[in-house]
Specification:
The structure is a single chain. With 222 residues, this protein is mostly helical. The protein is built from eight helices and no strands.
Length: 222
């Protein structure tokens, strides 16, 4: 047993530099796509929450359409089809925008649900004292919606971290890609995929812990 452990750690020392290179790209794709999804999700949610004429039905149709298309197909469209209409992106940019836009529609529905969960009596009271819709949204609605949306945002962040592996299909050499290349060249599948799983867990667990801390800190604002 001890010999097996020594052998495992010896192999891990050889594989880790390659896997850590992939982990760096995984983090870049995850953080970038999460930022895109968060910002766009807020925009879609606010437009639908305010029921902006013309824009609201268009956004609703866009959200429903993207929810019906797999993220992988959206990545292929952005990387392979978009250049044909003059929009050329690197594989990293395509991965960030593809996953970010794809997940923005799910974030949008979570944010909209959080906005709708705020008691309408409070918005009516804000309007009755002369607050504009923008001020009401900024000072009354959004501060109360954030703690409601945080748990689902955290779950989405973890899902996006795991789905960053889809970036390997458009040649981004992230963690899953590096693991697959190492496994195909060394045939040491067990060691490599144990290390890949451990590296994913090393990011997911602190992320979940951070979201829980943020949720507890924001809870008094409800």
């Amino acid at each position: 047993m001890i010999e097996m452990l020594y052998e495992f750690w010896g192999k891990a020392g050889l594989y880790m530099p390659f896997l850590l290179t992939g982990l760096k790209l995984t983090l870049i794709v995850t953080v970038g796509s999460l930022a895109v999804a968060t910002v766009l999700g807020c925009v879609w949610a606010i437009i639908r929450y305010l029921e902006v004429p013309v824009l609201s039905p268009l956004v609703a149709a866009f959200v429903n359409m993207l929810r019906g298309i797999p993220i992988l197909v959206q990545l292929y469209f952005i990387y392979f089809v978009a250049p044909q209409i003059g929009l050329s992106l690197t594989s990293m940019q395509a991965a960030i925008f593809g996953i970010g836009i794809g997940y923005s529609v799910y974030h949008a529905e979570n944010y909209r649900a959080a906005l709708l969960a705020v008691d309408k009596g409070q918005t009516e009271a804000a309007k009755s004292i002369g607050m504009s819709w923008f001020l009401t949204l900024r000072r009354v609605v959004i501060p109360q919606a954030i703690p409601i949306a945080l748990p689902s945002w955290g779950n989405m962040a973890v899902m996006m971290l795991k789905d960053s592996s889809l970036a390997s299909t458009i040649t981004v050499a992230e963690l899953a890609f590096q693991g697959r290349v190492l496994a195909s060249s060394t045939f040491d599948n067990s060691t490599i995929y144990i290390l890949v799983s451990a590296l994913y867990m090393s990011i997911c667990l602190p992320l979940l812990f951070l979201v829980n801390k943020l949720e507890k800190r924001a809870r008094p604002a409800r």
